[in-house]
Automatic annotation (TrEMBL):
PROSITE patterns, per the entry: GNAT
GO molecular function: acyltransferase activity, transferring groups other than amino-acyl groups
Designated name of the protein: GNAT family N-acetyltransferase
Organism encoding this protein: Thermocrispum agreste
Entry annotated with the keyword Transferase: yes
Amino acid sequence: MAAAGRTGPPLGGRCSGVRPTQAARASVGAAGASSAGRGEASVNLTFRHYDHETAPATVDDVIVPLYLATHPQAATDPFYSVERFTERVEGYMRSPGFGMCAAFDEDKPVGLAFGYALPENARWWRSLQPHDPELTIETGTRTFAINEIMTHPDHQRRHVARDTHRELLATRREERATLLVDEANTPAVTAYRRWGYRKVGTIKPFPDSPTFAAMILPLPPGGHESFDG
């Protein structure tokens, strides 16, 4: 589940777009946060965007290496194993509404965020407590669900998670974003709240998964190119 820069989720082929960025953009200012709070200045990153057709080519060389670097529990917890993670990722990628942004420092992948647009009658909300029928209505264009936000440990406290999250949402046209986070991961929860997310309940997405806090972020109407999350 999504957790900004947590430590404990091929460059070839087509990608949907490449966007270079300068360190410490004026549009971000000092209000941004990495998973560990206000850290060092942003590094110079190049962002590459992928969709459900182009993202599968990145699984072995980008997604799994970042996952292993940021999830030490993958070696001991079956729910977090690489096999289970890869199965989930491949399922997300089958959605036409899938989107992914990867951050590169030169040619090294150092950050990643991906998710998909929730379809009508989405399973995402089925275990939400407390249940809120109005909040859980989906149309296929209402909610972008973020599955993972990852930052390589060598690049944490440099706003990589914040910038990758912002770049991903800048391409979306949904009304809101949602993510799940382990409430024990205090740095991630703090970052998400600073980015504008609010908790709406708890969700246990799989029988053998932890129970996560479900958080929602309203997105600007009419396009998100200026989104400052």
